[in-house]
């Protein structure tokens, strides 16, 4: 199995000096980054696309879906960014950003963080949430599947650690906009599984003007 973990394209909150806003959209630069990511994915074996239910991740996932013959996109609430305490878009509004998104449970305004515990910032809880995501992916899909997860800079820290069987490290993984990380799980003839980090924070699909973010590294 390959878990292909990516970060969304540049959002309006990533622009230096921007006023923070909930559920920000991609900037024109971020949309171009997402398009180039989608183009890269066109030549890759991909069996499923899962994403956080935010506008910036849905738009990014949409560009991958388009390049994969409008592959369905499945929302996974637990992929949402660390500390999300605002209501995310309903399925009806999500369709505006990603027409291939599958139906998912709508959460009443003001209840999102409480309903899913996603506003919690405790590192141990976040580590547990990330482990649940990785476990769910590995149990749901076939051993030879390649699954894309479209998520966020903050929660990617925990997802990478969980995927690599690490406790939360005392350092930060660099995660640029639309970066690609690939973790491979392979079952050998002796029945033993090996975990291999194939790539991390790879943005080779971007040109020089798009590859480096001017934003602080952990601002989502």
Descriptors:
single chain; 220 residues; alpha/beta; Rossmann fold; 7 helices; 6 strands; 33% helix; 17% strand
What does this structure look like?
The chain is an alpha/beta fold. 33% of the residues lie in helices and 17% in strands. The chain has one domain (2-14, 23-210): Phosphoglycerate mutase-like (Rossmann fold, 3-Layer(aba) Sandwich), CATH 3.40.50. It has helices at residues 28-42, 55-67, 91-97, 112-116, 123-140, 153-163, 208-211; strands at 2-7, 48-51, 73-75, 146-151, 180-187, 193-202. Strand 2 (48-51), helix 2 (55-67) and strand 3 form a beta-alpha-beta unit. The longest helix is centred in the middle third of the chain and has 18 residues, at 123-140. The chain is globular and about 55 Å long.
How would the blueprint of this fold be written?
Elements: E1 2-7, H1 28-42, E2 48-51, H2 55-67, E3 73-75, H3 91-97, H4 112-116, H5 123-140, E4 146-151, H6 153-163, E5 180-187, E6 193-202, H7 208-211
Parallel strand pairs: 1-4, 2-3, 2-4
Antiparallel strand pairs: 1-5, 5-6
The backbone outline, from C-alpha atoms, is globular
In N-to-C order, the SSE pattern is: EHEHEHHHEHEEH
Number of helices: 7
Low-confidence stretches are 214-218
How far do the termini sit from each other?
Answer: 28 Å
């Amino acid at each position: 199995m390959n878990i292909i973990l990516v970060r969304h394209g540049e959002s309006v909150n990533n622009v230096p000096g921007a006023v923070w806003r909930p559920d920000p959209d991609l900037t024109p630069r971020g949309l171009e980054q997402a398009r180039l990511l989608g183009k890269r994915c066109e030549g890759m074996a991909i069996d499923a696309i899962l994403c956080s239910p935010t506008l910036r991740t849905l738009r990014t996932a949409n560009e991958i879906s388009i390049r994969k013959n409008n592959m369905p996109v499945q929302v996974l609430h637990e992929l949402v960014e660390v500390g999300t305490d605002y209501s995310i878009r309903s399925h009806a509004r999500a369709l505006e950003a990603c027409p291939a998104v599958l139906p998912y449970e709508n959460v009443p305004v003001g209840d999102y963080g409480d309903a899913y515990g996603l506003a919690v910032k405790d590192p141990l809880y976040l580590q547990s949430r990330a482990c649940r995501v990785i476990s769910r992916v590995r149990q749901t899909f076939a051993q030879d599947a390649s699954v894309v997860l479209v998520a966020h800079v903050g929660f990617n820290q925990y997802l990478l650690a969980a995927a690599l069987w690490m406790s939360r490290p005392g350092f930060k993984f660099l995660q640029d906009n639309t970066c690609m990380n690939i973790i491979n799980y392979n079952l050998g003839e002796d029945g033993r599984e090996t975990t291999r980090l194939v790539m991390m924070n790879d943005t080779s699909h971007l040109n020089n003007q798009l590859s480096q973010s001017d934003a602080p590294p952990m601002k989502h």
